[in-house]
Amino acid sequence: MQGSNPIVLVIIIANVLFSMKGFDDYSFLDKYKFQVGRVLGKEKIRMLSSGFLHVDWMHLGFNMYALYMFGGFVTNFLGTISFLIIYFGSLLAGSLYTLHYHKDEPYYSAVGASGAVSGIVYSSILLFPDMQLLLFFAIPIPGYVFAVGYLLYSIYGMKKQVGNIGHAAHLGGTIGGFILTLILNPILFTTNSQLVIMLAIPIILLLLFGDKLKNL
User: Which one of 96, 112, 121, 189 counts the least CB within 10 Å of its CB?
Assistant: First the structure.
């Protein structure tokens, strides 16, 4: 299996252990979760620590399943160090974008590895654009179609606050994964130029006009 790379398994185990601690100890969860007011203060560690906490087993299971499925593609193609750069860079990018988007909401809080995992998923699709994914576990679609649809849904969800989901972290993570993968493997500008342009357009528009979403 692609996802059986040791470093991927180590990160999954770390997520499980820290999340289980948070399930049973609310003070631990509260101390390390992402919260705008605390992060804007002196507790910057929350931007990373929140990525190893989850609200329940379903939340944890979904993120770790996605990481297991896609993580190996990145490690096998780019290597362990590049994988770690993309994973933690995407996690930080997700937190930074969330902080920017919710900067006027000091009590906004979130947990989860979604930003990091989103970056890994996007990196995988950039590296293997012809991969086939199963929508709803049944409908085969090209990876690049999923990537564009996922990004558009996250933008919609961020505007409408759909569900108890950190859509801003998803978006920040995808942006981080996209940019870091291109920096680490710039030949993609030549080999997959059409896909790079297609994925870059909504990201550029988001960066330019994302703040206006709240006023629409």
Answer: 189
